Amino acid sequence: MNGLIVDVLTMKAGGKTIVGGASLRADAGAITGLVGPNGAGKSTLLSGLLGLRPIVSGSARFEGSDLLAMPRRQRAQICAYVEQSASTEERLTVADVVGLGRIPFQSIWQQTDEQEAIVGQALADVGLAGLAPRLYTTLSGGERQRVQLARALAQQPRLMVLDEPTSHLDIHAQIEVLDLLRRTAAAGTTVVIALHDLNLAMRYCDRLAVMQSGHVVAEGMPDAVLTPELLGEVYGVAARRIEDPLSGRPVIVFDGTVLR
Amino acid sequence: MCPRSSTWRRNCRRWIFRSEAGARRFASPTYVVIMTAPLRLSSFVALCVLLICSALIAVTLGPADISTGEAWSIVLHHLGLVPESPVSRLRDAIVWELRLPRVMVASGVGAGLALAGAVMQALTRNPLADPYLLGLSSGAALGAVTMLLIGAALLMPVGAFFGALFALGLALGIAQLLGGATPSRAILSGICISALASAATSFLIFWSSTGDSYREILAWLMGSLSGSLWSDVALVAGALALCSPVVLYSARALDAFVFGDVSAASLGIDVSRLRWILLAATALLTGIMVAIGGAIGFVGLVVPHAVRLATGARHRVLLPWSMVVGAIVMLWADTAARTLFDPRELPVGIVTALVGAPIFFFVLMRYRRVT
């Protein structure tokens, strides 16, 4: 069985239900987008399905095995997680940061040539091979996020979960990140990504799930899911879909009316 | 500057960095000092040699007029390497019973505090963290002062140890009550416990101490290693032997904390279990160091930062380096404390603060340039 299946996952924080029985499917070799307004529970759901935050009930199965019952280390050898933005003040080089992705595979002291080769390959994959000896703290936001992607790639994951990785980035860096994910997915990895930009979601995701108040309220092909009616209901804004005259692709435009 | 010296310096740089590009990279503030692995290893060995040499020199220094050769022959004699010692029993005792244990305790305490500081900084992701962060030093002070004032001066280390652990336990307990011992909660409740314990200590001193005990308390509060015995050496060595393997074993996992708890968990680390294990190890380590030397400041804060400048922040390198550098720093600070104002002795905490604060400033300047 391929891909990720999340079944009625329920999560609480501070006595309040954040995710109330959310179900989700993500196919191998495809990008599955998770969209929805702030506070809908996207981040909580993504960290919950990787066992990073406690869950109340439900299950998350990946390629037939139970992600939540798996030992942490084993899970980290299969799944990689990228946060919205990862900051540090530590004096680490880019190569050091990417090397963190090898932690689940290492015993304590060893650092083999093989590990270094994987780190180098991951950096080359994100197009930052030349930056390996730079200090992470001196990088731009876009470069940092690509380094985090390289760190995730160094885990050689079969499932990659990303929590709004493009939110702080300019459009150039956003497209770079999403292109990279597309290539990763094309290599057979299951990619699940929370996004805010609906047009980018429509353009880059193979499937979309829409979350509202802790539930997945719609799931399917981006084209079919992101209708003006749904956007009005979920986001409370007036939206229209028009066709790009050149490519013929649908584009969502907002006329600035808030519905509630 | 004469041309020869600049050629020499260029050759040195070439030797160290293997290439001109490496040397340029060193000069550029956006690049970290990349020590090649062989260079890192050889400088670590050099530091260890420096530590041993420092100890050998430090035992020859002191108020009593004992020559270098005499001091070393006494040590060699006790190690069974020289059959008979020609010096008097008094001189023998000064070197073997006073100076050597003190030198060893100083190195051990320095190593322990620097290690504990590095771990605390990593666990709390707080560059200002030191081994005493969670109320350990104030708790220890309260315990020690209580023992002194009830007339049990010999039990001061015991009081300090349990005071420290009690304060830590209380701080973590409060943090847990607030909904989980996260770094920020632990720090905040540690501050709270620190303030309470300090107030209680001040009250006790104010209420009941006389001139003599006041000076003793003050020396203890500022940190002092005077009167260290072989039993203290055993205690310090035992604490290091027990705690440092646990901490060094977790070096790789500590790296994973650099982007926070969730990120560490996603790399397969059992975050809360590791945090409790390491907190327990550093608390035990710090508790014993505080019990023996009082709250010696700055070593645990500054040494890890200074080492990071040279080695970067990976703990596999940082932790052992911090231990050796901490040992050397403390050894010389204590030697200065007992010899500079001969025959009077300074509390070593004054020396570490006097030296540590400017170094800390320098470290901050370096950080500002690169971040």
Give a written overview of the molecule.
The complex is a heterodimer of chains A (260) and B (371). Chain A is 31% helix and 29% strand. Chain A is α/β, with parallel strands linked by helices and 260 residues long. Chain A has 2 domains: 1-78 and 157-226, P-loop containing nucleotide triphosphate hydrolases (Rossmann fold, 3-Layer(aba) Sandwich); 83-156, no CATH class. Chain A has a 6-stranded mixed sheet, with helices on both faces. In chain A, strands 2-1-4-5 form a 4-stranded antiparallel sheet, covered by helices on one side. In chain A, strands 11-12 form a two-stranded antiparallel sheet. Chain A is globular. The mean pLDDT of chain A is 90. Chain B has a single domain (37-77, 100-370), classed as Orthogonal Bundle (ABC transporter involved in vitamin B12 uptake, BtuC). Chain B has helices at residues 3-17, 20-27, 37-58, 68-78, 89-124, 136-149, 156-177, 183-208, 211-222, 230-249, 251-255, 261-266, 271-293, 299-311, 315-339, 348-370. Chain B has 371 residues and is an all-alpha fold. The A-B interface holds A 14, 47, 50-53, 72-77, 79-81, 83, 86-93, 96-97, 100-101, 103-104, 106, 108-109, 133-135, 137-138, 155 and B 25, 30-32, 34, 125, 127, 179, 249, 251-253, 255-256, 258-260, 262-263, 265-270, 308-309, 312-314, 316, 370-371.
